[in-house]
Specification:
By secondary structure, the protein is of the alpha/beta class. It has a single domain (4-201), classed as UDP-galactose 4-epimerase, domain 1. Helices cover 40% and strands 13% of the residues. The chain has helices at residues 19-34, 38-47, 59-68, 99-112, 140-151, 175-179, 188-201, and strands at residues 4-6, 71-74, 81-87, 93-94, 96-98, 138-139, 156-160. The strands form three sheets. It has a three-stranded mixed beta sheet with strand order 2-3-7. Strands 1-5 form a two-stranded parallel sheet.
């Protein structure tokens, strides 16, 4: 049973992706808007069109779709700045694992772990599943600040508490996996830096 997985070639759709890839794309677009780099935004829209908006759309159409997804250009600020508004309070906590770490854990379990290692009661076989994760959680607000730091986005990140938060926590108990001899290698900060650099290069 894996926790939230992220990695190269993730789904970056602004409506249908999971929280981390969606956040990375939104921060990237916010940074491009902050730098007035419409060419980069157009390349992004060409690769991942949003509701029919692509690289051939007008600047006004592109700005409008960015605003729909919480990316606002503050034209009257001096100098102009960008605000990214994310849903919820930012308080829910999530756990993430790098996709290569997940694959490594799966191979490790198949090669090193016997089903007999998971059976604690010979009279009744229960709870033999293995959680795969890091055992570390981070709030959505802290995650947003981490992505902001890694991407060097200088604008503002706000939260719209009128929108739903979702499940408060989704932390897995990975003690069984640790006791079987496996632990993750890629920290969340390292993983976000990897996937952000890949995303930018793929534009």
């Amino acid at each position: 049973m894996p926790t939230n997985v992220y990695g190269f070639r993730d789904n970056f759709h602004l409506e249908k992706s999971h929280v981390l890839p969606a956040m990375i794309r939104k921060v990237y677009l916010s940074k491009c808007l902050e730098e007035n780099d419409m060419a980069a935004i157009r390349r992004d829209m060409k690769k991942y069109p949003v509701e029919g908006i692509s690289d051939t759309s007008t600047n006004d159409e592109i700005i409008s779709i960015l605003e729909k997804f919480g990316i606002y250009l503050n034209k009257h600020a001096h100098p102009p700045s960008v605000t990214l508004v994310l849903w919820g309070t930012g308080q829910p906590k999530r756990e993430f694992i790098w996709s290569d770490d997940l694959a490594d854990a799966l191979v490790y379990i198949m090669e090193k772990v016997s089903f007999r290692d998971l059976v604690t009661d010979t009279k009744e076989i229960r709870n033999t599943h293995i959680n795969i994760g890091t055992g570390k959680e981070i709030s959505i607000k802290e995650l947003a600040e981490l992505v902001k730091k890694i991407t060097a986005f200088k604008g503002f990140i706000e939260f719209d508490s009128s929108k739903p938060d979702g499940t408060p926590r989704k932390l897995t108990d990975v003690s069984k996996l640790h006791n079987l001899g496996w632990k993750h290698r890629v920290s969340l900060e390292e993983g976000i830096e990897k996937i952000y650099n890949w995303y930018v290069a793929a534009r």
